[in-house]
C-alpha cells in the first residue's frame, strides 16, 4: 500500500545541507577525516551570562507552562533596545514576535500572505529556503538578478521593467548571503521605494548584521519602511546560539497580525527560559561583538588565504560568517567535489544559491584557526 | 497602502485560546480575580532530574550549534524504550522525528500529505487545530461524528457508507480530547482496518496516554498499523513540560520521509539540551506517573464536584487533564460566560470542539486543589 506524498514535495528536494551532511557523516564513519567548511553553525560558545540566565530561568516555577505566542514583555523591550543601540532606529511602535529562528519566519510569512499562484521576488543569488518555502505554499518564485559587478545589488532597470501585478512578497537579505555584501548607501531606500510604489510586502532577512560589519542596519532606518516591511532577525549568528532556535520578526501590528494568526494555529509560544536568555544576550555591551568579530576577522584572513591557494578571486571585506570566491576555471561544484574526495574538505558549491553562483564556492568561518590552517596544509 | 493577507486566513480565526486568554489578561489587569480553568497547561513542575539534565546539557561545548533534523540517537532509543515500557510495543523498526510538540506535527503532516482539495477526516468532537491546519493548507475537513452514547467512538455505519475517494488523512485521538474517553477494546483495530481498506493515512494524536489512564496504548499495538499510521506524542502533559516544546512523531521511514522533507525546509533541529532532558524524562520509572496521577485524581474529584454543583452530567473516570460535562440547560457558552462575568471563573465552552459540543463545558485539572475549592465556594 502506498500513501502518496503531496504534490508540493515534487517541486523541491530535501534541504541540500540535510542530504550533504548525511553523506559527510557517512564519510567520517568510514574513517575519512573530513573537515566541514560548509554550514554556518557557530563553533564558539554563547555568552556565559546567557547560559547562566537559561539555568536560573528553568528553576522558576512559572517556567514550564505554555507561553503566549507574542512572547514576554522583557523580550520586546530588549529587541527595541538592541535596534536602538546597534541600528540607531526607534522601533517602539513596531510589534516583535519571537520566532524559532528566522528560517521559521519565512514559512510563517509565506503562509500568511501568499495565495496559490502568487509570485514572490527572490534574490538570485540567495538563500535556497526562499524558493523552497514559496513553492511549498503554492507560490511562484520570480528571480531578480543581483549584479556581480554592482556590489551584488538588484538590477534596477530589470526591476523597473518588471510586471509586478502578481507579485506579493519581495525577499531581501543584506548583509547578503552567500556573497557577504553590505548594501551600499541608498540601496535600502531604493528597495523600500520600489516596494511602496508596487504595493509589495518587503521582507528583510537580517541575521548577519552584527558579524564583520561596521555598519549594521535595519530596514526600518529607511523613512516609511514600516508601511510595507517586515524584518527577520536571529540570535543564531550574533550570539553563537544557532541550536537554541531563537529569533524574531518585527513589523507594524497590521502586518504582523496575519503571521500571528498562522503561528497560533501551528505551534505555541517559546520556552520562557530561552526568551529570558535571549533578553540577556540582546542587552550585552558592544564588547561582546568586539571579541566575536576579532575572532572572525582572523579566520576571514585564513579563509582568504585558502581562496588564494585555490586560485579563486574574492573580496577581503566580506560581512557575515563566510567567504565567497570565484573559482579560476570549471564550476564550484567540481572544485567542491574535488576538495571533498581528494582532500577531505567540504566547501559549499555556489550553485545551490542560484545559477549565477555556479562558478563560486563558499567557505564558512565557523572553524578554528587551527582547522583552517590544517585545510591550508591539505590543499597546498 | 494595504497588503492583503492570504485567502486561507479568512477560513479560520486566531486560535480561540489566543483571543480568550487576551480577554482574561485584560480582566485581570482591570482587577478581576479571574481563575482560568480553561487551557490545559500543567501547573506542576517537571521532574527535577529533567531540569538538572537541561542545566548540565547547556554547559557542554557542543550544545549550541544546529542539530540534525532527525534528532539525537539517545532520544530515538529513549522513545523506543518508553513505547516498550508503557505501551508494550516494539517500535524499533519505526522512525522517530523530534517535534516542538504534537501541535507542530499536525502542520508538518498536513503539508507533507495534502494537496489542495484533498479531504481530511476530522473527529467531531475534536481538537480545533485539525480543522484550522487542514484549511490552512487548502484541504477540506470532513467531520466524522463521534457518538456520545457509544463511548465517543466513531459511527461505524456512517464511516462505512462514506465515499473516501478524496480522503487522504484521518485524524484520531484517544484518550480523546475533550471528552476524556479511553478507546474501548477493538476500537483501534477497527480504525486501522478502515484506514487500510480505504488507503488512508491514519494519524493518531496521543499526548494524553499517561494521564489518568490505566491502559496506555499506542496505535502501533495493532497488527499492521505501521503500514498506514503515524503517531504523535508529546512530553507536555506526561511530564509537565508544555512550555519546553518537545514531542515526537513516529512511523515507518517511508511515511516519515515526506514530513522530514517539509521540516528540513521549514526549521532546524531541536536544541540539544532539550533533547537530552527529554531522554531523561522518558527514562523515568513508573513512580513518576504514580505521583502525577495521584495529584490529578484528587483534582478530578473536585472538578466532578464543581460539575455537580453546576448541575452538569459527567463521567467520573475520564482520562487526560480535563473533566467534560453536559450542562443542565442552555449552552456551554452561556454557562461559560456567566461563570466568567459573574463569578470570575473561566471554563472552556464545548462548542469550540465541534457543534456536538454545544451543550458541554470542559474544566481543566491544571489548578491546585485550593484553587478548585475556591471555585466551588464562588459558585456555591
TrEMBL record, chains A, B:
InterPro entries: Aminotransferase_I/II_large, LL-DAP_aminotransferase, NHTrfase_class1_PyrdxlP-BS, PyrdxlP-dep_Trfase, PyrdxlP-dep_Trfase_major, PyrdxlP-dep_Trfase_small. Residues 33-379 form the Aminotransferase class I/classII large domain. Its cofactor is pyridoxal 5'-phosphate. SUPFAM superfamilies: PLP-dependent transferases. It comes from the Bacteria. PROSITE patterns: AA_TRANSFER_CLASS_1 (PS00105). Pfam families: Aminotran_1_2 (PF00155). Keywords: Aminotransferase, Transferase. It is an enzyme of class 2 (transferase). One of its GO terms (molecular function) is transaminase activity. Its EC number is 2.6.1.-. Gene3D superfamilies: Aspartate Aminotransferase, domain 1, Type I PLP-dependent aspartate aminotransferase-like (Major domain). Belongs to the class-I pyridoxal-phosphate-dependent aminotransferase family. This is Aminotransferase. It comes from Marinoscillum furvescens DSM 4134.
